[in-house]
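ingest -> validate -> predict -> emit
validate: passed (alphabet ok, no gaps, 226 aa)
predict: started
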Amino acid sequence: MTEEELARSNAERFGLLAAILMFAGLRPLLFFLSLFMPGAERLRGSMSQLRVAARDALQDNFDQVIDRVAPIALQSLTAWHLQMKEIIEGYLLAQATVAKGRPLLPTEILALQPIINVQLAFLQTFLFDLLLRQITIEYVAARSKLYSGAGRALWYRINEEHGGNGWVIDYVAVDDRGPCLPCGIAELGGPYKMGDGPYPGEVCLGRGRCRCDRVWRFDQRAWAQL
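emit:
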Protein backbone atom coordinates (compact mmCIF):
# COMPACT_ATOMS: atom_id res chain seq x y z
CA MET A 1 0.00 0.00 0.00
CA THR A 2 1.39 3.40 -0.97
CA GLU A 3 1.59 6.32 1.46
CA GLU A 4 -1.32 8.08 -0.25
CA GLU A 5 -3.47 4.93 -0.16
CA LEU A 6 -2.65 4.47 3.52
CA ALA A 7 -3.63 8.07 4.24
CA ARG A 8 -6.95 7.67 2.44
CA SER A 9 -7.65 4.42 4.29
CA ASN A 10 -6.96 5.96 7.69
CA ALA A 11 -8.98 9.06 6.84
CA GLU A 12 -11.98 6.92 5.90
CA ARG A 13 -11.70 4.85 9.08
CA PHE A 14 -10.91 7.51 11.66
CA GLY A 15 -12.10 10.78 10.14
CA LEU A 16 -10.62 14.25 10.41
CA LEU A 17 -7.99 13.56 13.09
CA ALA A 18 -6.46 10.72 11.10
CA ALA A 19 -6.47 12.88 7.99
CA ILE A 20 -4.52 15.56 9.83
CA LEU A 21 -2.02 13.13 11.34
CA MET A 22 -1.47 11.42 8.00
CA PHE A 23 -0.94 14.70 6.14
CA ALA A 24 2.87 14.72 6.25
CA GLY A 25 4.52 14.45 2.89
CA LEU A 26 1.25 14.40 0.92
CA ARG A 27 -0.14 16.95 -1.45
CA PRO A 28 -2.40 19.64 0.08
CA LEU A 29 -5.30 18.48 -2.10
CA LEU A 30 -5.36 15.05 -0.47
CA PHE A 31 -5.46 16.72 2.93
CA PHE A 32 -8.38 18.96 2.02
CA LEU A 33 -10.32 16.10 0.42
CA SER A 34 -9.89 14.02 3.56
CA LEU A 35 -11.69 16.68 5.60
CA PHE A 36 -14.91 15.74 3.86
CA MET A 37 -14.60 12.00 4.50
CA PRO A 38 -16.82 10.15 7.03
CA GLY A 39 -16.05 10.79 10.66
CA ALA A 40 -15.35 14.52 10.55
CA GLU A 41 -18.80 15.36 11.92
CA ARG A 42 -18.26 13.29 15.07
CA LEU A 43 -15.19 15.31 15.98
CA ARG A 44 -16.63 18.79 15.72
CA GLY A 45 -17.79 18.75 19.35
CA SER A 46 -14.19 18.62 20.54
CA MET A 47 -12.79 20.85 17.80
CA SER A 48 -10.89 23.12 20.18
CA GLN A 49 -8.86 20.23 21.61
CA LEU A 50 -8.51 18.77 18.15
CA ARG A 51 -7.05 22.00 16.79
CA VAL A 52 -4.36 21.99 19.50
CA ALA A 53 -3.53 18.31 19.07
CA ALA A 54 -3.41 18.65 15.30
CA ARG A 55 -1.17 21.73 15.50
CA ASP A 56 1.44 19.88 17.53
CA ALA A 57 1.10 16.69 15.49
CA LEU A 58 1.64 18.59 12.26
CA GLN A 59 4.70 20.34 13.66
CA ASP A 60 6.19 17.05 14.89
CA ASN A 61 5.34 15.34 11.63
CA PHE A 62 7.02 18.15 9.70
CA ASP A 63 10.34 17.13 11.28
CA GLN A 64 9.84 13.54 10.20
CA VAL A 65 9.13 14.62 6.64
CA ILE A 66 12.27 16.76 6.60
CA ASP A 67 14.37 13.80 7.74
CA ARG A 68 13.12 11.87 4.72
CA VAL A 69 13.64 14.71 2.25
CA ALA A 70 17.01 16.10 3.41
CA PRO A 71 19.13 13.33 1.78
CA ILE A 72 17.76 14.37 -1.62
CA ALA A 73 19.78 17.59 -1.35
CA LEU A 74 23.01 15.62 -1.69
CA GLN A 75 21.79 14.14 -4.98
CA SER A 76 19.99 17.12 -6.51
CA LEU A 77 19.44 20.51 -4.92
CA THR A 78 16.86 21.29 -7.59
CA ALA A 79 14.76 18.23 -6.71
CA TRP A 80 15.16 18.95 -2.99
CA HIS A 81 14.10 22.58 -3.48
CA LEU A 82 10.96 21.60 -5.39
CA GLN A 83 9.93 19.13 -2.71
CA MET A 84 10.60 21.64 0.07
CA LYS A 85 8.41 24.23 -1.65
CA GLU A 86 5.54 21.78 -1.76
CA ILE A 87 6.09 20.66 1.84
CA ILE A 88 6.23 24.20 3.25
CA GLU A 89 3.16 25.36 1.33
CA GLY A 90 1.19 22.27 2.28
CA TYR A 91 2.24 22.54 5.91
CA LEU A 92 1.20 26.18 6.21
CA LEU A 93 -2.16 25.47 4.58
CA ALA A 94 -2.65 22.51 6.92
CA GLN A 95 -1.91 24.58 10.03
CA ALA A 96 -4.31 27.26 8.81
CA THR A 97 -6.98 24.63 8.21
CA VAL A 98 -6.75 23.04 11.65
CA ALA A 99 -6.73 26.50 13.27
CA LYS A 100 -9.96 27.34 11.44
CA GLY A 101 -11.44 23.97 12.30
CA ARG A 102 -12.83 23.63 8.78
CA PRO A 103 -11.66 23.60 5.15
CA LEU A 104 -10.30 26.95 3.98
CA LEU A 105 -12.33 29.04 1.57
CA PRO A 106 -10.66 29.97 -1.75
CA THR A 107 -10.45 33.59 -0.57
CA GLU A 108 -8.73 32.47 2.63
CA ILE A 109 -6.20 30.41 0.72
CA LEU A 110 -5.49 33.43 -1.48
CA ALA A 111 -5.04 35.64 1.61
CA LEU A 112 -2.40 33.23 2.92
CA GLN A 113 -0.28 33.50 -0.20
CA PRO A 114 1.84 36.45 1.05
CA ILE A 115 2.74 34.44 4.18
CA ILE A 116 3.62 31.43 2.04
CA ASN A 117 5.67 33.61 -0.31
CA VAL A 118 7.75 34.96 2.58
CA GLN A 119 8.71 31.43 3.61
CA LEU A 120 9.46 30.43 0.03
CA ALA A 121 11.71 33.48 -0.29
CA PHE A 122 13.60 32.31 2.81
CA LEU A 123 13.84 28.88 1.21
CA GLN A 124 15.32 30.41 -1.93
CA THR A 125 17.99 32.11 0.18
CA PHE A 126 18.67 28.79 1.86
CA LEU A 127 19.11 27.19 -1.56
CA PHE A 128 21.69 29.82 -2.56
CA ASP A 129 23.55 29.14 0.68
CA LEU A 130 23.64 25.41 -0.07
CA LEU A 131 25.02 26.08 -3.54
CA LEU A 132 28.02 27.83 -1.98
CA ARG A 133 28.97 25.31 0.67
CA GLN A 134 29.80 21.68 1.17
CA ILE A 135 26.61 20.31 2.66
CA THR A 136 25.70 17.46 4.97
CA ILE A 137 22.35 15.80 5.54
CA GLU A 138 22.46 16.92 9.17
CA TYR A 139 22.90 20.58 8.22
CA VAL A 140 20.14 20.51 5.62
CA ALA A 141 17.72 18.77 7.97
CA ALA A 142 18.44 20.99 10.98
CA ARG A 143 17.98 24.21 9.06
CA SER A 144 14.95 22.93 7.14
CA LYS A 145 13.12 22.08 10.35
CA LEU A 146 13.17 25.74 11.38
CA TYR A 147 10.45 26.43 8.79
CA SER A 148 7.83 24.71 10.92
CA GLY A 149 7.89 27.69 13.31
CA ALA A 150 6.04 29.83 10.75
CA GLY A 151 3.19 27.34 10.75
CA ARG A 152 2.95 27.39 14.54
CA ALA A 153 2.77 31.19 14.51
CA LEU A 154 0.14 31.11 11.77
CA TRP A 155 -1.96 28.66 13.78
CA TYR A 156 -2.05 31.05 16.75
CA ARG A 157 -2.97 34.02 14.59
CA ILE A 158 -5.93 32.23 13.04
CA ASN A 159 -6.99 30.46 16.24
CA GLU A 160 -7.38 33.80 17.99
CA GLU A 161 -10.01 34.80 15.47
CA HIS A 162 -12.34 32.61 17.57
CA GLY A 163 -12.02 34.99 20.55
CA GLY A 164 -13.86 38.20 21.46
CA ASN A 165 -14.09 41.14 23.84
CA GLY A 166 -12.75 40.52 27.32
CA TRP A 167 -10.30 37.81 26.31
CA VAL A 168 -6.58 38.44 26.72
CA ILE A 169 -3.55 36.35 25.85
CA ASP A 170 -0.72 35.27 28.15
CA TYR A 171 2.49 34.23 26.39
CA VAL A 172 3.83 31.14 28.15
CA ALA A 173 7.50 30.40 27.47
CA VAL A 174 8.22 26.66 27.39
CA ASP A 175 11.66 25.07 27.19
CA ASP A 176 13.19 22.18 29.11
CA ARG A 177 16.50 24.04 29.46
CA GLY A 178 15.00 27.48 29.93
CA PRO A 179 13.39 29.73 27.31
CA CYS A 180 15.38 31.86 24.90
CA LEU A 181 15.63 35.58 25.64
CA PRO A 182 12.93 36.74 23.14
CA CYS A 183 10.43 34.20 24.51
CA GLY A 184 11.25 35.20 28.08
CA ILE A 185 10.68 38.86 27.21
CA ALA A 186 7.44 37.93 25.41
CA GLU A 187 6.17 36.20 28.55
CA LEU A 188 6.99 39.19 30.74
CA GLY A 189 5.39 41.59 28.26
CA GLY A 190 1.89 40.14 28.51
CA PRO A 191 -1.00 40.10 28.63
CA TYR A 192 -1.85 40.87 25.03
CA LYS A 193 -5.05 41.44 23.13
CA MET A 194 -6.20 38.76 20.74
CA GLY A 195 -4.17 39.06 17.55
CA ASP A 196 -1.50 41.29 19.12
CA GLY A 197 1.97 40.63 20.44
CA PRO A 198 4.66 38.03 19.74
CA TYR A 199 3.90 34.56 18.42
CA PRO A 200 5.50 31.20 19.28
CA GLY A 201 7.61 29.86 16.45
CA GLU A 202 8.14 33.38 15.12
CA VAL A 203 9.76 35.38 17.90
CA CYS A 204 11.55 32.32 19.29
CA LEU A 205 15.21 31.86 18.36
CA GLY A 206 14.49 28.15 17.99
CA ARG A 207 11.82 28.77 15.32
CA GLY A 208 10.66 25.25 14.48
CA ARG A 209 11.81 23.92 17.85
CA CYS A 210 9.54 26.35 19.71
CA ARG A 211 6.87 24.83 21.95
CA CYS A 212 5.81 28.05 23.68
CA ASP A 213 2.12 28.82 24.00
CA ARG A 214 -0.36 31.69 23.88
CA VAL A 215 -3.01 30.98 26.52
CA TRP A 216 -6.47 32.54 26.55
CA ARG A 217 -7.69 34.20 29.74
CA PHE A 218 -10.95 36.10 30.30
CA ASP A 219 -10.08 39.31 32.12
CA GLN A 220 -12.35 42.23 31.30
CA ARG A 221 -10.28 44.71 33.32
CA ALA A 222 -6.98 43.74 31.70
CA TRP A 223 -8.63 43.76 28.29
CA ALA A 224 -9.95 47.30 28.80
CA GLN A 225 -6.47 48.54 29.71
CA LEU A 226 -4.85 47.18 26.53
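The two ends are 54 Å apart (CA to CA).
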